[in-house]
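Memo to structure team: turn this sequence into structure tokens by end of day. - J.P.
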Amino acid sequence: MSSGPDPSQPLEPSAADRERGADGVSLQAHLPLAWRVSGRPEGQAPELMAENQTVLRALLALDDADESAGAEPRDRRGAPEIERRLDLLLLMVSSAIRQLVPMPPPRLCTLTAQGLAWQSAEPIGIGAWGELHLYLRPRLPVALVLPAQVEQAQALSEGAWRVRARFSGLPDSLAALLEQFVFRHHRRRVARQRAAG
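Reply from structure team:
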């Protein structure tokens, strides 16, 4: 048996990520993910990038709502009932969409503002271009679709691969939202670790 890397551990941010200021700031989780091969992106695909920004803004708003759920409400008459109805509506819509479009399987991922590392069941060549379809909230079947180029592929002893891809062509506004999302989840993970001892 070879002594390869532990497949249960996500990849750490690359040296290039650290040079760009990532400093280990990452979101590590099992997330539904699909890699779709495509050519090198010609431009920023404005409609796709606008959709990605909408998704990230919505996820950040949901995170804000989750954080404030434990806080004391100031004046929230009727708000719990509205929230329950919206939650039910979201659940119904999500269930309907999942029946039409199956979600990809969850994979162990490490997301930074610059790229994504994940475990793949098949090899992907270094330099390959594609789109990452990443579901940041598995209960919500809405994916970020991010153009990326594979910069690292590492075989694991079990016949699986660890792949790292760098995002390409993201507008600054989308990159800033992604960085905010990753930082928020990284901060929560650090807080949980400190609380645990």
